[in-house]
Amino acid sequence: MAIDDFESARAYGRELLGGDLVRLRPLEDRDLVHLERWWGDPEWQVFQQQTVRPQPDGPAQEQFRRWSANDTAASSGFSIETRASGEFVGHITLWGASLPARSATLAVIIGPAYVGRGYGTDAVRVMVRYGFRAMGLHRIGLEVAAFNARGRRAYEKAGFQVEGVRRESVLMDGAFTDEVLMGLLRQDWEAQEEARSAARASA
After folding, report:
1. Residue 9, domain member (yes or no)
2. Could you write out the DSSP letters of every residue in 115-133?
3. CATH code assigned at 124
């Protein structure tokens, strides 16, 4: 993956934030009203925040602005749009990276109308690539509620492995449920990328 000439440098910049279905771009003001609505929707809060606590307008927008400021090496956040039409479909961020561990946490939100169409998995793949190649990360981790089987499958498709379980750490509907810890190391990601490239070449 080393950049060794002018054209490979251009290709790196051109391809870094693009996937098969989506591309990542800076947050725009017009995205915020959608993110605030999705973040505050009780039906989907249980997956994003593991608690239902709707808030008035404002706080969520400031939160997404902070996540997308991209003014520190420890975090990066982008809006997600489709490659086909440029339609805004979600937001993704890596946060909490620091030396010497070079480990960050991933979080993604996809608009309810766009769930189940492959956008989330593709966006995670692109952000993982950005984390390892542009941020110099060694490890990317995330947390997902045990009942969120769809989310877990999407992360597994992007290469994440189950690393552990926080037993009964989430209160939901008056009962406690587990939280699954997942992670991806750079060397595992590199091996998966080589396998994907080989599969595409032979197709």
Report:
1. no
2. TTSSHHHHHHHHHHHHHHH
3. 3.40.630.30
